[in-house]
Amino acid sequence: MTDDDAVFRALADGSRRLLLDRLRARDGQTLGQLCLGLDMSRQAVAKHLAVLEEANLVAWQRQGREKLHFINPVPIHQIARRWITQFDLPRLDALAALKDRLEGPENDEQGKDNAP
Amino acid sequence: MTDDDAVFRALADGSRRLLLDRLRARDGQTLGQLCLGLDMSRQAVAKHLAVLEEANLVAWQRQGREKLHFINPVPIHQIARRWITQFDLPRLDALAALKDRLEGPENDEQGKDNAP
DNA sequence: TTAATACGCAACCAAATGGTTGCCTGTCAA
DNA sequence: TTGACAGGCAACCATTTGGTTGCGTATTAA
């Protein structure tokens, strides 16, 4: 329905997030390359890529008989922005601290649960 | 599998995102209240809430015969942070600009598609 | 030209998902 | 105490999802 919906759905699957990770590590890979360590059939990977394409998270380009896949960070960017602004507006300044930490030496953790 | 997985899955459904929106608008609502305008059976909403609870996105508290639901922003926070840092590290400074815009008057849009 | 490579298409399958209905339990108020 | 109200549980159903296999097509290399 929403345009985000496709993105959320695409991100809902671990295999697809893994594919995004791999593309982030090295952009412009072919289907075959993306299949390599994955314990999944080529067609399964192709289907996942189709979902990612439909969500506009991955774009591709023909090169001869190869299909090179490229990651598109914009939708994630938008969603992250939206959900940060909608959910965490009061804590947005925490991101400044995050930025500081990232530019600094090490990352530390912070609290997790607060179930009543 | 991952701890994020439950969160991503939970966020994948529009109805559940809507429930989170409603809780964000007013925290501590009962099942019945959350059902009100939703064109879904009470049990369907209860199931969605169960998914959100399992992802630790919603916590609840008994009060007599009522069950008050509370939103927990931490998991989204964590995911947003992770995905921003993993995907957008080079653009992290854009968040500073975002913060400026949010503290300023109006929000403008930016580019969408870039399929080849 | 032939064969190997890289991918697409379609059918099929099991399991998960989102939803329903029916009925049961606990709590509050008359 | 007796309803009415808020919610829980379980069975059931249709569709979607994630995956497979089999076969077909285009491109490259021998």
TrEMBL record, chains A, B:
SUPFAM superfamilies: Winged helix' DNA-binding domain
Taxonomic superkingdom: Bacteria
GO molecular function: DNA binding; DNA-binding transcription factor activity
HTH arsR-type domain sequence ranges: 1-91
Keywords assigned: DNA-binding
Pfam families found in the cross-reference section: HTH_20
Keyword DNA-binding: yes
PANTHER family from the UniProt entry: TRANSCRIPTIONAL REGULATORY PROTEIN
Name of the featured protein: DNA-binding transcriptional ArsR family regulator
